[in-house]
Amino acid sequence: ISKGVSVYIGKHRRSLIKLTLDPSLGTEEIRNTLYSKLERVIQTMSFTEEAITAALSDRISTDRFNKDDFENSRRAFKSSLGYEITFTLLNPDPKSHDLNWNISSASEQYIQPFLDKLQPVANFSVDSQILYYAILGVNPRFVKETSSYILNAHNLPHVINPVEARLGSSAASLYPVLNFLLYVPEYFHSPLYIHDKDGKRVTSNAFHSPRWGGIMVYNVDYGNPNDLKFPVHVDIDMVKVMEVFLTQLRLLLGISKVYVSESYQMENPGNEGLTDWELDKLLWTRAVENIATVTTTLTSLAQLLDQIGNIVINDNVASEVYNSVSSVQIALSELEAGRLENAFKASKEAITSSEKAFFDPSLLHLLYFPDDQKFAVYIPLFLPMAVPILLSLVKIAKDYRLSKKEPNKTD
């Protein structure tokens, strides 16, 4: 352990605590000091009340959150069986820039080890594209003192919409899409810097949008203006870019940055970008989130059955409901035993079964077209036709009665 470090947290569910105790302390005081240290380490590496609150963020009052917890809960994508990751290079000025980015090699080196580590959580697919003449929806402001252009924090939400219309990835996807955009500004808007809410330059020159993705601005060093020849060939520094995108990817998947005191030292997770105990926290959070989702789905299905008296439940729906409840029970028991991967798998099976039951074709027409809605639709159509028919029947009945009352004429 380095000098001044009292706690070392490794990447494989291990930690080392160094205590320097006063010889005059009693046994009880030593025990309390040790327990206090252990409690802080366990809270760092394990699950806390804040993690539970974040997992159930869609189902509890926002009054339970502090500002940071609320932002964290709304930033991450919700649990899904799969995710699609799209890297996009935006070249708004191809006449000025000849951009070369080795995204395939960079993704294989920096992103794939991270996704391999997350294999128990979900399936991931990665693709990339280059968009030419894709401009931002906001004109950056020129700062004369620094001879640069800036994008303020309040302008950033307006940057995404014009670009998103050209991405075209989310429309055909069955799973949530995480978009990561690398924007190289035009020559006449360079250099371009992002400023935060306090007006300070963002070190990474990037920002992320909750449950959508992230954008990084990459400025080109043009060197001596007198020696410029367009288009300028640019070899993009993929190490710098992937460091930013990997950090954003962690946040969007719900892996929050851990803040510890200066006396703590944390082992670098390496190329995987994820420690074992961070994976444990993610599995636990996703399992709890899945169980809550299943509970909501089955409760909605039960309410639907109570509202519709003439509904018929076939064997397939009953079987899926039974499997879902059984999987939830297994997930809860596995969570209690600390077998997080098994618990998460059971929770995924529970979600699949509950959704199959809820969206079964035999229930869909009752779900979207209940009986009261059918009456509301068809009565205006049939009532105008029914009134003349009923009046005609009444007239026929009256004529028949009158004919019965008239005496028969005899010669």
Fold and architecture overview:
- Pathway: Glycolipid biosynthesis; glycosylphosphatidylinositol-anchor biosynthesis.
- InterPro entries: PtdIno-glycan_biosynth_class_S.
- It is found in: Endoplasmic reticulum membrane.
- By secondary structure, the protein is of the alpha/beta class.
- It has three domains: 1-76, no CATH class; 79-253; 276-368, no CATH class.
- It has helices at 27-45, 49-55, 67-75, 103-117, 157-167, 238-252, 276-307, 315-337, 340-358, 361-368, 371-405, and strands at 7-9, 15-17, 82-91, 97-100, 123-132, 141-143, 148-151, 177-183, 192-194, 206-209, 213-217, 232-235, 264-266.
- It is flat, with a radius of gyration of 32 Å.
- The N and C termini lie far apart (132 Å).
- The mean pLDDT is 84.
Order of helical and strand elements: EEHHHEEHEEEHEEEEEHEHHHHH
Assign an overall shape.
flat
Counting H and I runs of at least 4 residues, what is the number of helices? 11
**Largest sheet report:** 5 strands, mixed
Number of strands: 13
Overall structural class, as computed from helix and strand content, comes to alpha/beta
- Compute the CA-based radius of gyration: 32 Å
* Helical content (DSSP H or I, runs of 4+): 40-55%
How many domains? The number is 3
Our measurement of the CA-to-CA distance between the termini, rounded to an integer number of angstroms, reads: 132 Å
Average pLDDT score = 84
Strand content is 15-25%
| Low-pLDDT stretches | none
Looking across the biggest beta sheet, what order are the strands in? 5-3-8-11-10
Keywords: Endoplasmic reticulum, Glycoprotein, GPI-anchor biosynthesis, Membrane, Transmembrane, Transmembrane helix
Main location: endoplasmic reticulum
Protein name: Phosphatidylinositol glycan anchor biosynthesis class S
Subcellular location: Endoplasmic reticulum membrane
